[in-house]
């Protein structure tokens, strides 16, 4: 494993990880698009010990649908240094949301791109509906959507009652640079102060050996508003072997990713220690309530 170029600041946070398994205890949703193997708290702790990360955000992964039990179990095991982002349905009872809040959930994720949804109006129905459900709790709405959807919805996203978090840079094609169609909407969201952008899944988006492709995007976002950025590893890197004819019910491998290399990419892109401290410590603390 590559090590970060320099020690991370105390209180650094990995804002995007998932936990899985065992399947016998935490069954997957029937309508899932993939089936991952096991990835547990001990493996996550070991990774973060090597990287120098002391805080973490567990994001409910799509194979579990709205059954948040595995993510909540992780919050219980990891304690006060962990926060959660749940997946809920429209019409989730208030007392259930209150229960999630008491277990340190601080946001909801709307998985638009995961299921191939490309209709901005259908995406807006889900985003707006969930924002209305969770605004009273002070939660944010995290969206996994492609640039074309974000571009259409950017103005409306800035008018929501809740803060918005954009997953994985907005899923751009890193080979095309930040001038590509739609990425200006992500920059506007960052500059508005209404949205946070996750610098996450760098290796998945860039491709192995091509992490430098992410640097212009990080530069552009930081120039727009360094207070709008957080970093996430996307561990344990689902999607290994996707697209090779594997059925959704077949266990697919995780991709072999070097999370220290992704951190080094952030360090290379952001030379100012104060900005790196904001991205790794201050911004996550404010967003997730550490």
Structure description:
Pfam families: Amidohydro_2 (PF04909). The structure is a single chain. The protein has a single domain, classed as TIM Barrel (Alpha-Beta Barrel). It contains 10 helices and 10 strands. The strands form 2 sheets. It has an 8-stranded parallel sheet. The mean pLDDT is 93. Helix content is 37%, strand content 16%. The two termini are 29 Å apart.
Compile the SSE list and pairings:
Layout: E1 13-17, E2 35-36, H1 41-51, E3 55-59, H2 69-78, E4 82-86, H3 94-102, E5 105-111, H4 120-134, E6 140-144, H5 147-157, E7 163-166, H6 183-192, E8 195-200, H7 202-206, H8 215-224, E9 229-232, E10 251-252, H9 259-269, H10 273-288
Parallel strand pairs: 1-3, 2-10, 3-4, 4-5, 5-6, 6-7, 7-8, 8-9
Helix pairs in contact: 4-5, 5-6, 8-9
InterPro entries: Amidohydro-rel, Aro_Compnd_Degr_Hydrolases, Metal_Hydrolase
GO molecular function: hydrolase activity
Pfam families: Amidohydro_2
């Amino acid at each position: 494993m590559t090590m970060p170029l320099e020690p991370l600041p105390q209180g650094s946070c990995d804002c995007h990880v998932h936990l899985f398994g065992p399947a016998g205890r935490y069954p997957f949703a029937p309508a899932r698009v993939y089936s991952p193997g096991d990835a547990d708290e001990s493996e996550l702790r070991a990774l973060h010990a090597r990287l120098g990360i002391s805080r973490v955000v567990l994001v409910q992964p799509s194979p579990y649908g709205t059954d948040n039990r595995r993510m909540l179990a992780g919050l219980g095991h990891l304690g006060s240094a962990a926060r959660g982002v749940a997946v809920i349905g429209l019409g989730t009872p208030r007392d259930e949301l209150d229960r999630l809040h008491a277990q340190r959930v601080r946001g909801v994720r709307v998985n638009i791109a995961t299921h191939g949804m490309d209709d901005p109006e259908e995406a807006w129905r889900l985003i707006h509906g969930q924002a209305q459900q969770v605004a009273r709790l002070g939660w944010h709405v995290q969206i996994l959507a492609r640039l074309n959807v974000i571009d259409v919805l950017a103005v409306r996203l800035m008018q929501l009652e809740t803060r918005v978090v954009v997953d994985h840079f907005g899923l751009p094609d890193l080979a095309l640079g930040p001038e590509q169609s739609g990425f200006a909407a992500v920059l506007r969201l960052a500059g508005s102060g209404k949205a946070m952008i996750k610098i996450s899944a760098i290796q998945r988006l860039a491709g192995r050996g091509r992490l430098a492709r992410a640097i212009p995007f990080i530069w552009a976002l930081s120039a727009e508003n360094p207070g709008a950025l957080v970093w996430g590893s996307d561990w344990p890197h689902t999607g290994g072997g996707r697209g090779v004819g594997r059925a959704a019910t077949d266990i697919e491998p995780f991709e072999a990713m070097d999370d220290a290399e992704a951190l080094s990419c952030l360090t290379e892109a952001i030379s100012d220690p104060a900005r790196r401290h904001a991205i790794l410590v201050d911004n996550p603390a404010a967003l997730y309530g550490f």
